[in-house]
Amino acid sequence: MGQKGEQTRARLLDATRDLIESGGYFNAGLNQVIAASGAPKGSLYFHFPGGKDQLVEESVRRGGREIARLMADLPGDGTAERLAALLGILGDRLEASGWRKGCPVATVALEMAATSPELRAACSEVYAGWEGALADRLAADGHPAPAETATAILALVEGALVLARAHQSRTPLDRAAKAVSALL
């Protein structure tokens, strides 16, 4: 596939992620994806012959990789400081989107995990990757229970994003940063 094809594919994935994150799986129809991406309809079926679920699955994984890169490149000396920075960045992103975009995985996990094994698996894979990276960091810091603490922190971050979105306030994210610091 040439550079133009890769760019079109990326635009389709990014448009899908944005639409799902802000409006959910069922509000991200293929016509909306095409309109938001500016790609021709034939390109969608060329790049994603499996249809909407393939498009969503790859979009979830792509969004997961972007957050994983963000997590890997966080500033700060300790894990608590880095996680506070992550919550700040996610808060900036959420607020800049008008409180519509929290996590590129959560909406799909909540809406589709019970009905689509492929989408559930994609969400699980992304979450497991984030948990693993966090557990590795905690282990490197000498934390006595890195896996358990990583799960608790990920749940805290995801919950704080949901609350921040519902309240249209950064307060849950700020409180989560303090709770992470207390955990560590």
Description:
The model has no long low-confidence stretch (mean pLDDT 93). Helix 6 (106-112) crosses helix 7. Helices cover 77% and strands 0% of the residues. The protein has helices at residues 3-23, 30-37, 41-47, 52-72, 79-96, 106-112, 117-140, 146-167, 171-183. The longest helix is centred in the last third of the chain and has 24 residues, at 117-140.
- The termini sit apart by 46 Å
Structural class: mainly alpha
Mean pLDDT: 93
Helix/strand order: HHHHHHHHH
Cα radius of gyration in angstroms: 17 Å
- Report the β-strand fraction as a percent range: under 5%
Could you give a quick summary of the protein structure above?
The chain is mainly α and 184 residues long. The protein is built from nine helices and no strands.
Using brief descriptors, characterize the structure shown.
single chain, 184 residues, mainly alpha, 9 helices
Secondary-structure topology with pairs:
Layout: H1 3-23, H2 30-37, H3 41-47, H4 52-72, H5 79-96, H6 106-112, H7 117-140, H8 146-167, H9 171-183
